[in-house]
Amino acid sequence: MKNESVSSITLERNVIKNPARSDNLFLSILRTYKVTILLFVGIIVLTAVLTPEFFNLQNIINVTRQASVVGIVAIGMTFVILTGGIDLSVGAILAVSGVAFALMLNAGMAVPVALLIVMVIGVLIGIINGIGSTFFGIQPFIMTLATMAVGNGAALLLSNGSPQTFMVNSPIVEMLGNGGIGMVPGPVILFIGIAVISWLVLKYLPFGRFVYGVGGSLDAARLSGVRTTRILIMVYSISGLTAALAGLINASRLYVGHPTADSTIMLDSIAAVVIGGTSLMGGRGGVGGTVLGALLLAMVANLLNLLGVSPYNQQVAKGLIIVAAILFTTPYLKQHIKQQWTGL
């Protein structure tokens, strides 16, 4: 029994070691995100050949702005997926956040207070997801599906099913929506800031190692003394917070809180994470790949728009890219196919 316990703890130590750590940062990034980087470079080359106008400065700014909202949500989703979970409620949190923000500003509330309350709402919904998935043992897919339904209903109920416009003269709202520093839009600055902070957290802080450890082996992490319940609640809180921030950006850009805003954000954020090389099984991946994945999705959408491809065909293209990314990032794919073939 003693040897078994020692073996479990040794296993956990190996699991919790952050896979993003390496003595050579460049080689580590290249090794971890090689498929995503190849896809990214391939899209750039294809774009240069088919639509040279893509590289117009204003168009590049638009692409980065489009990628920032999906990217911010996807970073929060990365934390959840790294633990082996999933968060389907991000779209509902985004919608509720935008509607609540508009209603509070229309009621005369100060912008900083309204911003803080919206972020707290996002965190609280994340905590509910985390508690349901841990204390009550509800599968994350089902738990977040339930909060998605409640959130969508709450957004429609609060807004009476109609967009809530607001008028406010605030540099904060301007920066979140249409402002920026120089040529760099405010949402892109926020996206970069969140990405850098998240990367540092996952790479250097114990919390980051614990996130990878929980995704690699929940039981081993628990046996080693990691407070797995706390870690899981925290990652869902982070996901809720980033979704709320994305809702604030959407509302600030158009000065409207829409109860059905960005209905595809959940699928797009998961796609960005998967394309970025993070395993849906947990324990492998990181924020760097997610950033590239969000940019890649935005570039593909922009390229197809410039080529005049219909939105329906764009969804087909997005699906094919996701499947290709999963196939190329699956370890030991040939052996897996061979094993399944023998089972026919």
From TrEMBL:
It comes from the Bacteria. Keywords: Cell membrane, Membrane, Transmembrane, Transmembrane helix. Pfam families: BPD_transp_2. It is found in: Cell membrane. The chain crosses the membrane at residues 35-55, 67-95, 101-128, 140-159, 179-202, 231-251, 289-309, 315-333. GO terms for molecular function: transmembrane transporter activity. One of its GO terms (cellular component) is plasma membrane. The keyword Transmembrane applies. InterPro entries: ABC_transp_permease. It is a multi-pass membrane protein. This is Ribose ABC transporter permease.
